[in-house]
TrEMBL record:
It comes from Mucilaginibacter panaciglaebae. It comes from the Bacteria. InterPro entries: DinB-like, DinB/YfiT-like. This is DinB family protein. Pfam families: DinB_2 (PF12867). Residues 28-146 form the DinB-like domain.
């Protein structure tokens, strides 16, 4: 691997995990009270739970697209957004966060091992590099919303 390629891969992995100028999901959720997960009192369209689930579903979909030519994406937008404002219980919350972490690490392994510039054969011009940038951009956008909601709830640092 050339040093330029290694620099790009390492910087994008840092971006995916929430490094440098981006706060990661774990930091954005650190100290979040359980009762605030489904709070919609701030009159924004989504609760923190709905944003977390949307991140989970979207990232899972992008990962599966990269791995499986037969993958069927959820129906947009209905199946990308949970209807419930709050998780069913603590286990649902923890399971969602675990899947986000696990899927991200699986994507990162793929990103480290494969040609990041090669078009995904069953796609329309997508590559692992494009999917990595999309995951990072999408997740950071919604992390920002989580932070805004937490600030409006007065429970963020």
């Amino acid at each position: 691997m050339s040093s330029e390629h290694e620099i790009i891969v390492n910087e994008i992995i840092k971006l995916l995990r929430g490094g440098s100028t981006h706060i990661g999901l774990k930091d954005a959720l650190d100290g979040l009270p359980a009762h605030a997960r489904g709070d919609k009192s701030v009159k924004l369209p989504y609760s923190i739970w709905q944003l977390v689930e949307h991140i989970r579903i979207s990232q899972w979909d992008m990962l599966q697209f990269c791995l499986d030519a037969n993958h069927k994406s959820p129906k947009w937008p209905d199946e990308y957004w949970p209807k419930e404002a709050a998780p069913a219980d603590d286990k649902a919350w923890e399971d969602a966060l675990k899947q986000i972490d696990d899927d991200l690490e699986q994507f990162i392994r793929l990103f480290q091992e494969e040609d990041i510039y090669k078009e995904i054969p069953h796609g329309n011009g997508q590559s692992l590099l494009r999917e990595a940038l999309q995951i990072a951009d999408h997740t950071s956008y919604h992390i920002s919303e989580i932070i805004v909601i937490r600030r409006l709830q007065d429970n963020y640092r």
